Amino acid sequence: MAGLQGIVDTGKSLGLQIKELIELVRELEEKEWERDEKEREREENELEREEKERERDQKEWRREENEREREEKRKGRERKERERKENELECEENEREREDMLPFSTVLGLLQRVF
Questions:
Q1: Residue 72 contacts by C-beta under 8 Å, 6 or more apart in sequence?
Q2: How far apart are CA 107 and CA 115, in angstroms?
Q3: How far apart are CA 34 and CA 52, in angstroms?
Q4: pLDDT tens, N- to C-terminus, the chain (115 residues)
């Protein structure tokens, strides 16, 4: 009977050890799952950060592109204004030349009538 009790005690002891091992395996699996979950969260955060960075870069590029376009339009307006002023000055100069020519042409006309 004592031998049988020893076997039963050994079985119980082994059963408890197996239960403890099973619990340890479950804890390890849970920790591994938590570690994997944290890693997935880090990866998601990294992807979100990269996406936000790309969006910021795109906004910056669009802002710079808009600024270049505004600068080109401003230069175009300035060029047109310069050309308009140059044309205006040329018209004024032509007008003065015509006015200067009138007395000459009048004198010339009178001379032709006389001679």
A1: none
A2: 12
A3: 27
A4: 667 777 777 878 888 899 999 999 999 999 999 999 999 999 999 999 999 999 999 999 999 999 999 999 999 999 999 999 999 999 999 888 877 666 666 666 666 777 6
Torsion, CA 15, CA 18, CA 20, CA 22, rounded to 10: -140
Residue 16 CB-half CA count within 13 A: 5
Residue 76: both structure tokens together: 């175009």
Separation between Cα atoms, residue 115 and residue 82, nearest integer Å: 48
| Distance of alpha carbon 50 from alpha carbon 62, whole angstroms | 18
* DSSP-assigned letter for residue 113: H
Q: Using CA atoms, how far apart are residues 56 and 62, in angstroms rounded to an integer? A: 10
Which amino acid belongs to residue 30?
Answer: E
Number of H helices and E strands in the chain, helices first, is 1, 0
**Cα 38 to Cα 42: distance, rounded to the nearest angstrom:** 6
